[in-house]
Specification:
The structure is a homodimer of 316-residue chains. Chain A has 13 helices and ten strands. Chain A is an alpha/beta fold and 316 residues long. In chain A, the strands form two sheets. An eight-stranded parallel beta barrel of chain A has the order 1-2-3-4-5-8-9-10, surrounded by nine helices. In chain A, helix 3 packs antiparallel against helix 12 and helix 8 crosses helix 9. The longest helix of chain A is centred in the last third of the chain and has 21 residues. Chains A and B meet through helix 9, helix 10, helix 11 and helix 13 of A and helix 9, helix 10, helix 11 and helix 13 of B.
Chain lengths: 316, 316
């Protein structure tokens, strides 16, 4: 890290491509490719990464190889390899695989909790209490996720007080950070300021992260709003993985390259090398049934193609 | 317009899809489809629209039918149908076609002016003086465009003072508004604030518009920055037309739907109906060799597809 970058304020970028991204892709990706993908992201400078998910393999076949991913993964120092666990059984599988950082996922709206995890919010939090107890004893760190923080596809707009309540519950369980997810990507900077205006009355900004989806094109503007309100932790998915804009089921994850490009130019230090990040996307791209949709990813690829063409012309 | 919308501050959206968009698409579009596209955009509420370009048909075959477009176009009251004219000959063709609003295009960097219009900036301004004289006599209104306001693909970063100089020259010629273009889409909110911080010392905000490209995913965040600095006029292209993210030559126009979605939710009144705007994109989409890349366009299309599927299921 250069002297210049040390002087800039740091922002933590949490890479969610290998889990949130791949789980929402149709293509089956070989375990070995997932491992190379995670390691390429870490080599690019990622320091917190949602690696896989210890969910029921029958319900989520794409994540059935979670234990193998952990077994094969080189563990680099200073990197937090997070795995999502839905229940105590998942926690035990994650522990057996050598995982020491887990993510707990619930929602701010009952409709989404019911549809996504087949529980009430309170039931999900009750289940997390057993996991939290075991995690505390095992020295495992926990990251919390609250989805549908602005609106829910089933229940409509979400009350900020409800987000506050669920976030506080996750922090009370011992989560070091709670990531607030705009699951359907409908929020605008106004929504972000309104939500954080309420949450930051009660919670310190360093315990909150923002997880935006770009479904309606607002993710980057929402990150700027979050930065203005003092947040310094954001989730994103390499190349926009999991958010294929061509498919009707587009989830539209914010692309990590777009986030890093923004943060670089606003004067923040992410520790991530943008060029290496784009190359990490190329590790996973051949296994998908579509190009990676991230705009910066595509812009850098275009630049590279033009330079290669130019070099070929000059050489001939 | 409802009473509620009258109370909201107004923002002028200039639709550039039929000219800036189509000119950057490979597909040949029939004149009749262009006319239907323009009229559908106007029906959606667009009040200023870059309709076509009276450039040399040999250099830009996609715009060879400019006079026919104007001849066939229904002219709705309260709408400014702008045509780009590069020189006095183009101006005379535009006038003969019945055009009463023109756009003058130059750059803030010599490298781009040379590559794009094959002149120095001063030569382009000198040419505009003859056009401006004729336009004043004819009662034709003029809109100015300054491209490469943040950086140039040939000359690197652009000095804000240079943007100021060219903008002032266009206003001195009698332009009612100058649109500041981030032609290669590299700017971030920091760049936008820096540029406007200088320009607004000398120029009133109501004479400036912003024209962002989304090549690096920053366009929406830049619009927010422009709004914060008091600007109320923005250019965009329906569906992101002209900015195909799959092609290496992606220009990446900000999609009008993304802009309108943002403005609606930030409490501004654009007079544009988002749903009708998406439908206007569908008029031109069948003539392209790729789906429209705009995020909101795709999100609305997905919603419509899901609703149609649901309705079909319920009916069966």
């Amino acid at each position: 890290m250069s002297a210049a970058s040390e002087a800039r304020p740091q922002v933590l970028v949490t890479e969610v491509g290998p889990r949130d991204g791949l789980q929402n892709e149709k293509a089956a990706v070989p375990t070995e490719a997932k491992v190379r993908f995670v390691d390429a992201l870490v080599a690019a400078g990622v320091r917190q990464i949602e690696t896989t998910s210890f969910v029921n393999p029958k319900r989520v076949p794409a994540m059935a190889d979670a234990a193998d991913v952990f077994a094969l993964l080189p563990r680099r120092p200073g990197v937090r390899y997070v795995a999502l666990v839905p229940n105590l059984k998942g926690y035990e599988r994650a522990r057996a695989a050598g995982c020491d950082a887990i993510a707990l996922f619930t929602a701010a709206s009952e409709g989404f909790a019911r549809a996504n995890i087949n529980m009430t919010i309170e039931q999900s939090l009750a289940g997390f209490r057993d996991i939290a107890k075991a995690a505390a004893a095992d020295g495992v760190s926990m990251r919390g996720y609250v989805s549908t923080v602005f609106a829910c596809p089933y229940d409509g707009p979400t009350a900020p007080d409800q987000v506050l309540k669920v976030t506080e519950a996750l922090l009370d369980l011992g989560c070091y950070e709670v990531s607030l997810g705009d699951t359907i990507g409908v929020g605008t900077p106004t929504d972000t300021h309104r939500l954080l205006g309420i949450l930051l009355r009660y919670l310190p900004s360093r315990m909150l992260a923002l997880h935006f989806h770009d479904t309606w094109g607002m993710a980057v503007a929402n990150v700027v709003a979050g930065l203005e309100d003092g947040l310094r932790s954001f989730d994103a998915s390499a190349g926009g993985l999991g958010g294929c804009p061509y498919a009707p089921s587009a989830s539209g994850n914010l692309a990590t390259e777009d986030l890093v490009y923004l943060l670089d130019h606003l004067g923040y230090d992410t520790g991530i090398d943008l060029d290496a990040l784009v190359s990490a996307g190329d590790v996973i791209s051949p296994f998908l049934d579509h190009p990676l949709p991230g705009r910066v990813h595509q812009a850098v690829q275009s630049q590279r193609a033009r330079r290669a063409q130019l070099a070929a012309t000059e050489a001939s």
